[in-house]
């Protein structure tokens, strides 16, 4: 599994990879940093950061531990 952003080659955190699986596809081979993912989805990074926080706090997603 690649550990860098598909677009800007930034090093990714576990959270960033996890949210890519959530928002793109569980089987995605392309991972993006929050900035590039936000741009790709057209929503900016803010809502994505909120989703990460939500999944972490809800504690019921296996991708966020
Ligand atoms: Zn990037």
Description:
49% of the residues lie in helices and 0% in strands. The chain contains three helices and no strands. The longest helix has 14 residues, at 45-58. It binds zinc ion. The site of zinc ion (ZN) has 8 residues, from helix 2. Zinc ion (ZN) binds at residues 5, 7-8, 10, 32-33, 35-36.
Task: Note the topology.
Blueprint: H1 14-23, H2 34-41, H3 45-58
Helix pairs in contact: 2-3
Bound molecules: zinc ion (ZN).
Residues in helix, %: 40-55%
Major sheet: none
* Annotation, overall tally of beta strands: 0
**Kindly state the mean pLDDT as a whole number?**
91
Count up the helices: 3
Bound small molecules, by name, code or SMILES, are: zinc ion
> What is the SS-derived class?
mainly alpha
- The H-and-E topology, N to C, reads as HHH
Rg is 11 Å
Question: Kindly, what is the distance between the CA atoms of the first and last residues, rounded to a whole number of angstroms?
Answer: 18 Å
**Count of the domains:** 1
Low-confidence stretches: none
> Beta-sheet strand percentage?
under 5%
């Amino acid at each position: 599994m690649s550990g860098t952003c598909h677009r800007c080659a930034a090093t990714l955190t576990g959270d960033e990879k996890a949210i890519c699986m959530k928002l793109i596809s569980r089987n995605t081979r392309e991972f993006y940093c929050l900035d590039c993912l936000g741009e790709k989805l057209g929503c900016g990074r803010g809502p994505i950061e909120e989703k990460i926080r939500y999944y972490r706090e809800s504690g019921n997603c296996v991708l966020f531990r």
